[in-house]
TrEMBL record:
Source organism per UniProt: Alteraurantiacibacter aquimixticola
Keyword Membrane appears in the UniProt entry: yes
Protein name according to UniProt: HupE/UreJ family protein
TM helices/strands, residue ranges: 183-202, 208-225, 237-256, 268-294
Keywords linked to the UniProt accession: Membrane, Signal, Transmembrane, Transmembrane helix
Superkingdom, natural source: Bacteria
Record carries keyword rRNA-binding: no
Amino acid sequence: MIRLFAAVLALLATLAALPARADDNRPFTVTITEEGDGAYDLVWKVPPNVERAFLPDLVAPEACVEGEQVRQWSDALGHWRQQQWTCAQGLAGSDIAIAYPLANPNLATIARVHAGGGVETLLLQPGEHVLRIPAPEEASTGSTFAEFVVLGFEHIREGIDHLLFVTGLIIIAGTWRRILVTVTGFTLAHSLTLALAALDVIRLNTRAVEAVIALSIVFLAVEIARGRRDSLTWRRPVTVAASFGLLHGFGFASVLREIGLPDEGLLTALFAFNVGIEIGQVIFAATLFGAWHLTRRIAPALPQTAPLRTLAAYGLGTTASYWLIERLSSA
């Protein structure tokens, strides 16, 4: 059973690399700005790892008139489109269809609606293709804190590369106490750079950061494959976790920069986003460790866990190497 568990873990890690560049968990983003007299400015984009051919159309409600001029461009942040709409009765309470010309490349949608003197954050999962602009009575009554906690949780839930790095840390740390210390070091480190990057104190090339994040997983995979030995990684995994965590923080910040932090409650939103990340991270770590521990207790008579570590190492290494090559080629 333990070997079956290892094979499944390795297979899932390898398959994670196969969908349309699943390494980049940045969403399809939409910004809608009310300009007065029924006029709206819409700007939307897909991340740079997605081909321009996948950039969807936004279909206006029947009561709106789409402007004839459509501006399109591409840059390091992605592929963009901009259009003006005129909606005499406003967009509140209307539905906007998201029409992908080919298929949705597994992108969630995050929309920011600037209207009526406020800002509304809307979240859609990859399978959802209708953006509902809430009417005043439907507007979210949740706080900015709650909204950004959800954003952070969704980000880490879809952040396969960050979760695989945490997987490597758990395998190396081994015991619950060492896992707690190691993951805490990772958390503190990425929280620091997340704040610095989101506030534009420090800015690094996004694609270069993502390449190094993939490299960090390759590094852990090599360490796991070589087995327990007298190295810094095995003696003090928290040191490695904190060092690479500084770079992972810049990766987390990429989504926040694209969405934009609110003018009011900026620090609260930043803290909430990080809380959401940590909630998802703790749930993942506890689930993985629990499954590992339960499997070993169910099958105590089976051979030692070296094959399990080896299979996990090759699964992590194969996936991360694929991402590394892809990210270097597009940097």
